Amino acid sequence: MNRFFDIPSDLQHDWFGLIGLHLREALLPVLGGLLLALPLAQLCVRLRWLYPPVLWVTTVLYAIPSLAFFVVLIDYTGQTELTVMIPLTIYSLVVLVPAIVDGVRSVPQETLAAATAMGFGPVRRYVQVQLPIAVPAIIAGLRVATVSSISLVSVGMLIGNQGALGNLLHDAQIYNRPELAWNSVITSAVLAVLADALLVVLRILLTPWMPSGVRGAKTKPAGVRPDPAVPALEDAAR
Amino acid sequence: MNVINFVNAFFSDSAHWHGYDGIPTRVWEHVQYSLEALALAAVIGLPIGLVTGHYGRGGNVLSLVATAGRALPTFGLLVVTTIVLGFGMLPVMIPLVVLAVPPILVTTYEAVRSVDPSPVDAARGMGMGESGILLRVELPVALPLIFGGLRSAAIQIVSTATIAAYVSLGGLGRYIVDGLYQHDYEKVVGGATLVAGMALATLAVFWAAAKVTVSPGVRRSN
């Protein structure tokens, strides 16, 4: 068990250091993706004709393998964390845009009319009515983006030890210590599950009006759709 | 622009079109890996999703399984399976199937569960058995969404099957991995273009399959 956490010194971090590095490389892109997706999604809601082309472009970007993305970027950004984070940001964006658009569009017309009648301007209506109602859908998108981002960071190992916990895979091979590979896989899986659970808690905190727990999902609010990427690709194929 | 020059150079070099490292061979290998992985994932995910969706139970367990499946890093899993099982096809298939089962499983479950209950009740009232209801009422109505899940799984498989090259198998990943080690960016960009093109072709295939198999009545209501 001791050897399990005995990280070779060429990684220049201990186990917790690697975890911190991994979380930074995985979560900053999701945050960046969210910051880009919010205005982009709002544009897509406003201008309906914009949504299909945006979906097409993002679907194509999503199809580029992460490894190829990394290697092409090395030319511009070098073997740095940024090279890993740019593709992850784009992948998050691809998942989040349709999630937010669907969420905002799912707000009932009567609700919007009521807000307008109460004297809400468009900006206030968006921030105080549409976004909160879209929270479950946005969080569902964030869950998919976060989990896949955490699991993709490892590929960064292939471009010169930028994979955080993934670098353990390389060391497992060169030092012939399989337990390091297990450590890498198990630790990143646990991180992903924990991050996912935190997002669920966040959803419950942000939407106090909704029945908490999965049992409430039987009533089928808009946000329990499992995989926002699916309806997105559904739209894209039409 | 740099990237476009790379793409041009890669595809106009006739050496890339022949032999065991030629584009046709690599494309065919990639198609084979992807189809195998998708078939395996569908065999696992579809029946479970259909049955659990029909009875509307087990959603919690399914979403747990799906999160766990998504949380496992595909690339790390590949390294671990190769360490445990040695080099070969099986250690590559396991991570790809683990990647593809969650979207298939969860969408199928949701698709069947969200079928309008009134036709289901009508079928039951007419004396149709449970398997008849599932296969002849719920499945056709849920089909467009089920296709969506399969498609999303297929695209992820196509773009991830590139990792097979890391453990010295073939497929389009060879260009990316070899190009990386040879510092031959032309090859990398060419390989990435081929993969993205194949993902688009996958979209087209699913679009055509949905056109053929989804009943016109269901399509209209969607």
UniProtKB/TrEMBL annotation, chain A:
It is found in: Cell membrane; Membrane. Residues 19-203 form the ABC transmembrane type-1 domain. The keyword Transferase does not apply. Keywords: Membrane, Transmembrane, Transmembrane helix, Transport. SUPFAM superfamilies: MetI-like. GO terms for biological process: glycine betaine transport; transmembrane transport. Coiled coil: none annotated. The chain crosses the membrane at residues 26-47, 54-76, 82-101, 133-160, 180-206. GO terms for cellular component: plasma membrane. CDD domains: TM_PBP2 (cd06261). Residues 216-238 are annotated as: Disordered. It comes from the Bacteria. It is a multi-pass membrane protein. PANTHER family: GLYCINE BETAINE/L-PROLINE TRANSPORT SYSTEM PERMEASE PROTEIN PROW, OSMOPROTECTANT IMPORT PERMEASE PROTEIN OSMW. Belongs to the binding-protein-dependent transport system permease family. This is ABC transporter permease subunit. It comes from Streptomyces asoensis. The lineage of its organism: Bacteria, Bacillati, Actinomycetota, Actinomycetes, Kitasatosporales.
TrEMBL record, chain B:
Pfam families: BPD_transp_1. Residues 27-206 form the ABC transmembrane type-1 domain. It is a multi-pass membrane protein. GO terms for cellular component: plasma membrane. It is found in: Cell membrane; Membrane. Its main location: membrane. It comes from Streptomyces asoensis. One of its GO terms (biological process) is transmembrane transport. This is ABC transporter permease. Keywords: Membrane, Transmembrane, Transmembrane helix, Transport. The chain crosses the membrane at residues 37-56, 77-101, 157-177, 189-210. SUPFAM superfamilies: MetI-like. Belongs to the binding-protein-dependent transport system permease family. It comes from the Bacteria.
